[in-house]
Amino acid sequence: MMEITRETMSFTSSTPSARAPLGGRAPGNVATQDRMLKIVTEMRSGHGSGLSPFGQNAASTIRDSREREKKEMSDLNDRLASYIEKVRFLEAQNRKLAADLDALRSKWGKDTHNIRNMYEGELADAQKLIDETNKQRKDMENQIKKMQDELADIRRKYEDAIKGREQDRAKIDSLLVQLSNIEAEINLLKRRIAQLEDEVKRIKQENQRLLSELQRARTDLDQETLNRIDYQNQVQTLLEEIDFLRRVHDNEIKELQTLASRDTTPENREFFKNELASAIRDIREEYDQVNNVHRNDMESWYRLKVQEIQTQSARQSMEQGYAKEEVKRLRTQLSDLRGKLADLESRNSLLEKQIQELNYQLEDDQRSYEAALNDRDAQIRKMREECQALMVELQMLLDQKQTLDAEIAIYRKMLEGEENRAGLKQLVEQVVKTHAISQETDTETMRVVKGETASRQSFQRSAKGNVSIHEASPDGKFIVLQNTHRSKDEAIGEWKLKRRIDGKREIVYTVPKDFILRAGKTLKIFARNQGVASPPDQLVYDAEDSFGTGNNVQTILFNKEGEERATHIQRQSSA
Question: What residue stretches are annotated with the IF rod domain (predicted)?
Answer without folding.
Answer: 69-422
